[in-house]
Amino acid sequence: MTVASSAPNRLKLNEDDPKTSLYRRVADAVLALPSYFESDTTITGIQATDLFALNSVLSASIEVQVVRTLNNMRSVWDPTGSWQTYSFERQSQTFPDVRLVSRDGDSLNIAMGIELKGWYLLSKEGEPSLRFATTPAACADHDLIAVVPWHLSDVLSGTPVITSPWVESASYAAEYRNHWWQHVRTTTADTAIHSPDKEVGPYPIKSDMVADKPASDKGSNFGRLARTGIMDSFISVSLSTAIAGIEAEHWINFFKAFSEGSDPAKIREQLQRRFQGRS
């Protein structure tokens, strides 16, 4: 049984800190990405039944291109030139995977970070599959987490197109995840969460242990933000996105029916069941 507990609140940021206005402008820039994003990647010749594999193949490339786009959007997040020596850099296997940094010889100054994840909109799951397990203490006050949905311009081919992202405070998302795991979901399992033994802070190095770990997680679901409800509205809007005139959710149902079997009668039955359920 879970025990009732109040949901976490977003941190009240210091309005006198110049990073606070930067944080808000960067969040606005991420939300504006669809208007600025351009990709030099072109995909052709893919089979419809192989479409679901695109998430693992291309998402890392999309994330790299998003970082490049953010650097080209400097007028949006730094209109006064206050941060002109800073640029976004992507790093792998360390939280956050994108940092806004300035370098002066061996000196590195970090203004803020973004945990950036791509979401292939036509993936079989019908929701972002990312896992975010970073402990709240490792999130700086001005760090963000962002999920960027994308699809191919011509469904089965073309260039990647991104749609409206989801942007949230990284620390709030981490607190919300832990609250949901311990107090909201229905379970008889142990709901305890173990934080790193060593005290951690923002912008850890690669060797630092910064992940919270659940005492019991047989399904390996800890950190799946899409399961917590925090992204429900975003997911619903994203799945209603029209791609070539058809909502993303219907494309998923169509491709899933063909990927799960080759018997024509079973395919018709699956399609009828899925689309009737949405009518």
Architecture overview:
With 279 residues, the chain is of the alpha+beta class. The chain is 33% helix and 18% strand. The strands form three sheets. Strands 1, 2, 3, 4, 5 and 6 form a six-stranded mixed sheet that branches. Strands 7-8 form a two-stranded antiparallel ribbon. Strands 9-10 form a two-stranded antiparallel ribbon. Helix 7 packs antiparallel against helix 8. The radius of gyration is 20 Å and the shape is globular. It starts with 17 loop residues before the first helix and ends with a helix. The mean pLDDT is 90.
N/C terminus separation: 36 Å
Main beta-sheet strand count, sense and barrel state: 6 strands, mixed
**What would you call the shape?**
globular
Task: Output the number of helix runs.
Answer: 8
How many E-type strands? Answer: 10
Broad structural category: alpha+beta
Assembly classification: single chain
What would a concise description of this structure say?
This protein has helices spanning 18-31, 33-36, 54-72, 74-77, 170-184, 232-239, 248-259, 264-278; strands at 87-90, 98-104, 107-120, 144-152, 160-162, 166-169, 193-194, 213-214, 242-243, 246-247. By secondary structure, the protein is α+β, with helices and mostly antiparallel strands.
